[in-house]
Design goal:
The protein has 155 residues and is an all-alpha fold. It has eight helices and no strands. Helix 3 packs antiparallel against helix 8, helix 5 runs antiparallel to helix 7 and helix 6 packs antiparallel against helix 7. The longest helix is centred in the N-terminal third of the chain and has 22 residues. It is elongated, with a radius of gyration of 16 Å. The relative contact order is 0.20.
Length: 155
């Protein structure tokens, strides 16, 4: 996945230097970083169910799912999620998958900012924030699927 993502994230009209070190870096725009960000979100959702009894799947299935975007980083993440369709449309227009790579990377940055700035587990907004974590993880999985990259649920 790391080599594939490194290749796909580049604009095919520009040249690049092949480097395993750059591909396997745990920071920056790499598959390793994105897979870690996804696993982190899923870990939060899993802990919400195990430690606090909040079952996100039951909330969604019961039609009681509501996301409130009160905090600045919640709004930022919600806005990034909204741009998913735009990145797909852009990719379909020119058939360059790097648009999806750019999207999932900026989404992962917004998600990291969100979980750093907003307490998710044990907060009064826990259900809403867990739903936001799940929505982000699902969107990231869609991107991984479109790019042909296998994702992990935990590391």
């Amino acid at each position: 996945g790391a080599v594939k993502y490194f290749d796909l994230r580049r604009n095919p009209t520009s040249s690049y230097k092949f480097s395993y070190d750059a591909m396997l870096d745990t920071k920056g725009n790499t598959a390793i970083y994105l897979l870690y960000a996804h696993a982190r979100l899923e870990s939060i959702v899993t802990k919400g169910k195990a430690d606090f009894g909040v079952d996100i799947d039951a909330l969604i299935g019961g039609g009681n799912a509501q996301i409130a975007l009160a905090h600045k980083s919640e709004r930022n993440l919600g806005l990034h999620l909204h741009f998913f369709a735009d990145s797909i449309e852009e990719t379909l227009n020119d058939l360059f998958p790097y648009h999806i790579c750019d999207f999932v990377y900026t989404l992962s940055i917004a998600a990291s900012e969100f979980v750093t700035q907003c307490k998710v587990l044990g907060s009064p907004e826990m259900e809403s924030r867990l739903l936001l974590c799940r929505a982000t993880a699902l969107t990231m999985r869609q991107c991984f699927d479109l790019l042909g990259i296998r994702y992990v649920m935990r590391i």
